[in-house]
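Practice problem. Given the sequence and the SMILES for S-adenosylmethionine, write out the predicted structure.
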Amino acid sequence: MKLFSRVIKDYRDHAWLTPLLRTIDRRPMHCSLYVTDRCNLACGYCHEYDNRKPMPTFEQLRQRVDKVLDLGVSKIAFVGGEPLLHPELGPLIRHARQRGANTSISTNGHLLTAAKIDELAGAGLNGLQLSVDRLTPSAVSRKALSLVEDRIDLLNKAPFKFHLTTVMCADTVGDARAILEWAVARNIHVELRVMHADPGQCFRTTSAEQEDLFALIEEQRRLKAVGRSIHATSTILDFQAAILGRGRFDWTCLAGYKIFFVSGDGKFWLCSHRPTDLDILQVSTADLHGYAGRKGCEPHCGIYCAVNNSVFITSPTRFVAAELGPRFRQAVNMVLGRRQP
Ligand SMILES: C[S@@+](CC[C@H](N)C(=O)[O-])C[C@H]1O[C@@H](n2cnc3c(N)ncnc32)[C@H](O)[C@@H]1O
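Answer key:
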């Protein structure tokens, strides 16, 4: 019974119909909205936080949520910085849910408590991404399994779905396989991702580590095929293999059109690497339509939500067909309680 409710939790919120409508209409689907630029951690490879920036007020964020929903967005990912630092994240999620949006957050989990999880669940949160990049903390990153393992126990009991994400760079790649195995052995959804930005060129992987990265992409593919708890889509696995020099992956980025970001100061961004100065409240549907074509940065992209959502929109049948078998086997494995890969 417990496993059955877990399967329901994982599958009920996929809300297939609205995303499918977005493949045939001209409205946007996904928005990543920064609720704050501030972060309680300072990972060496991360460039998505700035503690000097002011925290947006609830009213500012509510207006941004209303605006993106009026434009047609159906899924909002609340991101940061660290979103749990915002004292009114719960009410913001509740507001977005009352307006019919699917909501998720991405968090390092350090501020998660049982009471916070209850608050997020009560607000109607659909999904949570927990960032776990290492087994134990290092001088570079404190996103460590050892520091959040107790929160994972709490998340296992939460009514919303969650998954782990591990960024693979020189500081973390050595632990990635162990994190993958740890999660899969517990039927916890997990995704290992190649780092997307390294402006200081400090966390580049060596060619030997690149071999490891590719092996880890292939290991996720193998585990996914037999229905283990791999969160990454086949699209993302194919794309990462291509950026590691194995195979071709041709796609058109629909960032700015079907998927976009809203920065902590309320600016419309195509994605976290392509900012604009336009105030989101001034953006029109015609502005979005202007971004329907190729962007040119597709071959080097690391914004996985842009890749996933763009390919879903441009090739929905191929995208969904690749997911059906593995997701069905995942559900069966979860019901049967199979734990070892
Ligand atoms: C920037 S964080 C913000 C949200 C939240 N603080 C968290 O930890 O999930 C969002 C995700 O980006 C990842 N990230 C940080 N630096 C990255 C990089 N250079 N390349 C790829 N992903 C990165 C984080 O590990 C995390 O999974």
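Check your answer against the key. The chain has one domain: 2-336.
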